[in-house]
Amino acid sequence: MDNINFNLPKMYEKFLKEIRGSEGFSVGDTGVILYEEEDLPERNLTYEVFEYEPDFFMIGQDGDLAFFIKKDSDDTIYKNDLGALGSCEMEEVSKDIYEFIEYVKEHYEML
Q1: Which residues span the domain enclosing 22?
Q2: 5: Cβ–Cβ under 8 A, 6 or more apart, which residues?
Q3: How many domains does the chain have?
Q4: Which domain of life is it from (predicted)?
Q5: How remote is the C-alpha of 25 from its chain's centroid?
Q6: Which of 57, 77, 52, 61 is nearest to 7 (CA)?
Q7: Does 16 map to a domain?
C-alpha cells in the first residue's frame, strides 16, 4: 500500500487483494468486519492507533473489539478492546488472516 510506511504480512496482503473493490469483508453474520485497503488509514487515525499502539495496525472490528496485525511482523492477528488501547496487552487470536476468519465463524462467542 502506498500510504503505509511498513511492510504488511504476506498473507494479509494477499487477502487485501482478494477483497479489493468491496466495502470490507463481513465474517459471516458475526458482526466482524475486516476493512478494505482504502479504509485502513482512516480507521487507524480515527481510533488513534498510532498514538496508543504504535507497533500495531487495526484491520477490522466488531463494535469496541478491534483486530490488529503487528507492523513489520508475521501474519499473526491480535485483538484488543478499543477503550483499552495502550493499557492492556494485545491478545493473539490466530496465526494468519485466513485462520482468523475460520476461527471467528466457528468460535465467535469466545472472542
Answers
A1: 10-110
A2: none
A3: 1
A4: Bacteria
A5: 11
A6: 57
A7: yes
Within-domain flag for 4: no
| pTM recorded for the entire structure | 0.92
Q: What is the mean pLDDT of residues 50-79?
A: 97
Distance CA 27, CA 62 (A): 10
The CATH number of residue 25's host domain is 3.40.1580.10
Q: In this predicted structure, what is the pLDDT of residue 110?
A: 72
Q: CB of 61 within 8 A of CB of 74?
A: no
Cβ proximity of 100 and 15 under 8 Å: no
45 band by pLDDT with thresholds 50, 70 and 90: very high
Predicted confidence at residue 88, as pLDDT, reads 96
Residue from 44, 34, 46 nearest 5 by CA: 44
